């Protein structure tokens, strides 16, 4: 009897040492691994040395989005390694969700799982396991995830001791994950700051609006990995929205020339309110008045199938210059932190666009002054009228790079007009007098551009 007791004590000691070794390895992995994915893989190995864990899941809860399933780890022994599932809403009745909501461990052998399924307490997905354990990951008395092991092999069952060991280990996993997630968040903020600086530097080197939109659009795609990115600029003079940048992961860059009257669609809401708009699903987007440009419908672009939508205003001196939009095929894809980062990018873009527009306006004034000076020089040189027309026409082509430039004079009494200067399709044409047409007659009689 004493020998049996000594043997039992030795087995218990070995088990305790094994658990202590596992806890040390978890702490060491949390301190040394370079990524969350590497930590999960190491964690899987550690737990597998304590008990049967060919099927091993770590499922995390995203409080901001109210979903679970992202940023987790999923390896299923029933077939190949399982890909992470699409984010699931917290209200779904899978065993993992029940554990997460209750904050309590569940041990479900096959028969018990069948009973709870029939009672409507749980709603399992996938193949039925022979045995299943789910343990909540808790930080500050709140469950933020679940660790799951399960067996599909007949005869491979979990004991009450296995449950206790996994609960004990889960406490240390929760501590390690909390630390790693905090470090990852800090790294992300550092990366975001670097991105913002790089965007700012790139925009500072250009004074062209189209270049600015391309720089920001491409950077937004890199940061958010969104399925679709759009930048719409507001033309205050014509009161319309111009889609300047549109990129879809499936359709690539899309050219949309349709000008959208202010008041149509979600971008108009962002412009008029000067506030961000975060939408979780396609149904919500439609309910709030989403507008799909006719060109997109005609092209049957996949962007129309997106669910999540986040739009922030491009502001400069409290004026809305446009909207930056990101879209995703998943519901609840964007968070308040995504919105905050996008707002910062849009604010930097607003300053760059304003500077570019001021520069363009200044260039136009310089061009106008050059034309006026050219006319004055011709008059001062006492040139004939033909020479003046020639000088002004050439100056217009030089400054604005127009393909066709013509200067007409008209005799409304004789109902004729003379082409004093004409450059069309790369050729300088000779002066000619022709009957006045209705378009030019209207301009002359109304004295309006």
Structure characterization notes:
This protein has 449 residues and is of the alpha+beta class. The protein is 48% helix and 23% strand. It is built from twelve helices and 18 strands. It has helices at 2-32, 36-50, 95-102, 110-118, 160-204, 209-224, 265-273, 282-287, 294-299, 336-380, 385-400, 438-446, and strands at 55-62, 67-68, 73-75, 88-89, 106-107, 131-139, 142-151, 228-235, 240-248, 252-253, 260-261, 277-279, 308-316, 319-328, 405-411, 416-424, 427-429, 432-435. The strands form three sheets. Strands 1, 2, 3, 4, 5, 6 and 7 form a seven-stranded antiparallel β-sheet that branches. Strands 8, 9, 10, 11, 12, 13 and 14 form a seven-stranded antiparallel β-sheet that branches. A hairpin with a 4-residue loop joins strand 8 and strand 9. Helix 1 runs antiparallel to helix 2 (36-50), helix 1 (2-32) packs parallel to helix 5 and helix 10 (336-380) packs antiparallel against helix 11 (385-400). The chain starts with a helix and ends with a helix. 26% of the residues are buried. Residues 79-84 have low confidence and may be disordered.
TL;DR?
The chain is an alpha+beta fold.
Structural category: alpha+beta
Query: Can you tell me the residue ranges where pLDDT is under 50 for at least 5 consecutive residues?
Result: 79-84
Element order, helices and strands?
HHEEEEHEHEEHHEEEEHEHHEEHHEEEEH
Please tell me the overall pLDDT: 82
- How many angstroms does the end-to-end distance come to? 111 Å
How much is the radius of gyration in Å?
Answer: 34 Å
Percent of residues in β-strands: 15-25%
Say how many strands there are. Answer: 18
What is the molecular shape?
Answer: elongated
């Amino acid at each position: 009897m004493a020998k049996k007791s000594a043997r039992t004590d030795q087995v218990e000691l070995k088990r305790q040492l094994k658990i202590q070794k596992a806890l040390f390895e978890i702490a060491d992995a949390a301190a040394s691994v370079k990524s969350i994915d590497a930590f999960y893989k190491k964690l899987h190995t550690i737990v597998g040395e304590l008990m049967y864990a060919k099927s091993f899941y770590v499922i995390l809860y995203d409080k901001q989005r109210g979903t679970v399933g992202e940023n987790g780890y999923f390896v299923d022994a029933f077939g190949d390694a399982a890909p992470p599932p699409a984010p699931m809403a917290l209200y779904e009745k899978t065993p993992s969700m029940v554990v997460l909501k209750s904050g309590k461990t569940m041990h479900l052998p096959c028969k018990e799982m069948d009973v709870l399924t029939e009672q409507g307490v749980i709603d399992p997905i996938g193949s039925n396991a022979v045995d299943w354990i789910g343990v909540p990951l808790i930080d500050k008395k709140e469950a933020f995830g679940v660790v799951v092991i399960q067996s599909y092999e007949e005869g491979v069952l979990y004991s009450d001791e296995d449950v206790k060991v996994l609960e004990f280990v889960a406490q240390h996993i929760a501590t390690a994950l909390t630390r790693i997630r905090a470090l990852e968040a800090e790294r992300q903020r550092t990366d975001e700051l670097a991105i913002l600086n790089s965007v700012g530097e790139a925009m500072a080197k250009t004074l062209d609006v189209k270049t600015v939109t391309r720089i920001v659009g491409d950077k937004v795609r890199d940061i958010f990995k969104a399925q679709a990115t759009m930048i719409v600029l507001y033309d205050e003079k014509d009161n319309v929205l111009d889609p300047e940048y549109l990129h879809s992961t499936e359709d690539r860059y899309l050219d949309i020339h349709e000008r959208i009257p202010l008041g149509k669609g979600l971008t108009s809401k962002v412009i008029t309110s000067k506030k961000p708009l975060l939408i979780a699903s396609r149904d919500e987007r439609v309910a709030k008045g989403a507008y799909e440009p006719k060109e997109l419908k005609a092209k049957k672009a996949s962007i129309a199938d997106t669910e999540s939508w986040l739009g922030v205003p491009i502001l400069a001196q409290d004026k809305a210059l446009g909207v930056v939009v990101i879209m995703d095929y998943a519901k609840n894809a964007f968070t308040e932190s995504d919105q905050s980062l996008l707002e910062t990018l849009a604010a930097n873009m607003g300053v760059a666009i304003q500077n570019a527009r001021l520069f363009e306006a200044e260039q136009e004034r310089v061009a106008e002054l050059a034309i006026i000076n050219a006319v004055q020089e011709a008059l001062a040189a006492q040139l004939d009228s033909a020479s003046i027309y020639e000088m002004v026409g050439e100056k217009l082509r030089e400054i604005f790079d127009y393909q066709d430039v013509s200067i007409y004079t008209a005799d409304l009494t004789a109902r004729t007009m003379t082409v004093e200067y004409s450059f069309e399709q790369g050729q300088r044409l000779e002066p000619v007098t022709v009957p006045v047409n209705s378009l030019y007659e209207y301009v002359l009689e109304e004295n309006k551009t």
